[in-house]
Specification:
Length: 202
């Protein structure tokens, strides 16, 4: 992902649920509700002011560098954001960029992109890692296997399933109609259309 604080991306923050919810209160007491919502709107404004202090013309191609500058601005403004709000800011300001640095999670693992996720159908008796090395890695070198998804029955990576070829087992061949029969039907329809038109124009 790359990051930038230009007006277009900054405007996107206002559409993020976590950011919008800052100015929403569930308090039943009207006074407390109004106070909390006012406080939330002030925080929203303060966040936007912090972002306006970051060079809008600079395109960050490393999220960790951008986060450092963001944290520096938040600290200077004495603002502390929840994980949800900070994530909303990053989602709004980030865009996919193949030339940018890979984003890593807190444990140092590459973060997956849900839009790039793909699934493979692997024969049951074939080793998953061998299949992956042979069939996937040559085409997508930076792909990896999500080993957290395991089948409940065998406890192994992936889900066990069955593929039934419906055409092979249930298809019944039906020969096409003779051209002469089709031609008769077409002529019958043509005559029917002509009769309908004659009624309209009569």
């Amino acid at each position: 992902l790359n990051f930038q604080t230009n007006s277009e991306r900054t405007e996107q923050i206002k559409t993020q649920t976590a950011f919008k919810n800052l100015a929403v209160s569930k308090k039943k007491d009207k006074k407390q509700k109004a106070e909390q919502e006012e406080k939330g709107r002030a925080l929203q404004q303060a966040i936007l002011i912090v972002l306006s202090g970051i060079d809008s013309g600079k395109l960050y191609k490393d999220r960790s560098v951008f986060v450092k500058d963001l944290d520096k601005g938040l600290k200077a403004a004495d603002l502390k954001l929840t994980k949800g709000v900070k994530k909303a800011v990053l989602v709004a300001l980030g865009q996919r960029d193949q030339s940018a640095e890979i984003c890593y999670d807190d444990k140092g693992n590459p973060e997956s992109d849900a839009e790039l996720r793909d699934y493979e159908h692997i024969p049951y008796h074939q080793d998953i890692n061998e299949y992956f090395t042979k069939e996937v890695t040559p085409h997508v070198p930076d792909a990896w296997i999500n080993d957290t998804v395991c089948d409940e029955k065998d406890g192994k990576i992936g889900r066990v399933g069955y593929e039934i070829n419906l055409n092979r087992y249930f298809y019944i061949y039906q020969p096409p109609r003779l051209l002469a029969e089709i031609d008769v039907d077409i002529k019958g329809l043509e005559n029917e259309i002509l009769d309908l038109l004659s009624e309209v124009t009569a």
